[in-house]
Design a protein that fits this description.
By secondary structure, the chain is α+β, with helices and mostly antiparallel strands. The chain has one domain: 2-Layer Sandwich (D-amino Acid Aminotransferase, Chain A, domain 1), CATH 3.30.470. Helix content is 32%, strand content 19%. It is built from eleven helices and nine strands. The strands form two sheets. A five-stranded antiparallel sheet has the order 7-6-5-8-9. Helix 4 packs across helix 11. The radius of gyration is 19 Å and the shape is globular. It starts with a helix and ends in a 6-residue tail after the last helix.
Length: 293
């Protein structure tokens, strides 16, 4: 749905930027087949969108910035959880590929799934990589995805960072542990695995904080592919990090990895996509954790 909107809505991005409620309502209806309730919100996504439209989210913009957030993480929990940073660039043409290692990741700081995972630099088509990055930097992601705080991320940057490997399953990609946190309290974790590069095609499972799986929290009428994964050995440390990074926010999803039994920071997400696939009952349960101002 988002790809379709990107194609047809680009000429109207100026209109959308002035009326974010329009695109939010459209995406919400497409995902849930019901109207969003912004007058008396009770469900999880309804409350998050209410906060997005009715409060100061300038801090969201800083912390959703995949480059600027590094300072917040460093000052809050230390830099041991940060990936190695190889370079920061204003344009794709500035990237010195010869100076980068054989394996690395390129990503823009202002969007989602705008990354290029390089497992072998010699096989990378440089012109194609630069073209993709140029497109992602020009795309008005915030307007078109119903996430206005992304629009305010400035300046737009490209970062080159460490390529992470899950030693126990190097061919399957990383397991992404997404902590749903409310004012510093992690409540549940969505574990994503076997992600196809640059997409939302994944296998997933929801867990409570005791690592009990809860597939019933997902709406199985939607295309959900389940897979249970082992509890990370560093889970307690991950939960502590998620708690510290989410202090002071009504909701934020803290994404972490576990590499060699060590937590590694992924990103902070304040407006999780409408493809969370939660049941209405679980949407209501999560919504109870959010206190609107």
């Amino acid at each position: 749905m988002k790809k379709i909107i990107y194609k047809i809505a680009s000429p109207f991005s100026q209109f959308i930027s002035k009326h974010p409620k329009f695109i939010i309502s459209l995406l919400y209806y497409h995902a849930f087949h019901r109207k969003i309730d912004l007058s008396n919100p009770e469900l999880f996504h309804d409350k998050i969108m209410w906060i997005s439209l009715n409060t100061d989210t300038s801090q969201w913009s800083k912390l959703a910035d995949k480059y600027a957030v590094r300072d917040y993480v460093r000052n809050t929990v230390g830099d041991d959880v940060l990936t190695k940073l190889y370079g920061v660039y204003d344009t794709p043409d500035e990237i010195d590929f010869a100076a980068l290692p054989n394996q690395f990741v390129l990503k823009t700081n202002n969007a989602c799934t705008s990354n290029i995972i390089v497992r072998d630099k010699l096989s990378l088509e440089l012109d194609d990589a630069r073209s993709k990055l140029r497109y992602w930097m020009q795309m008005p992601y915030g307007e078109l995805s119903g996430q206005p705080h992304y629009t305010r991320i400035s300046p737009k940057k490209i970062i080159a960072e460490e390529f992470l490997i899950q030693p126990e399953c190097p061919e399957d990609g990383l397991i992404d542990y997404k902590f749903n946190c409310f004012n510093g309290k992690p409540v549940s974790i969505a574990a994503f695995s076997e992600r196809k590069d640059g997409t939302h095609l994944i296998r997933r499972m929801l867990y409570d904080m005791d690592w009990n799986p809860h597939p019933e929290w997902y709406d199985t009428a939607k295309p959900v592919f389940f897979k249970e994964v082992p509890k990370p050995l560093c889970f307690d440390e991950m939960a502590q990090i998620a708690s510290k990074l989410s202090q002071g926010f009504p909701y934020v999803r803290v994404d972490l990895y576990a590499i060699n039994d060590k937590p590694i920071f992924g990103e902070l997400t304040f407006t999780p996509g409408f493809d969370a696939f939660y049941t209405t009952e679980y949407e209501r349960e999560l919504g109870k954790w959010i206190q609107l101002p």
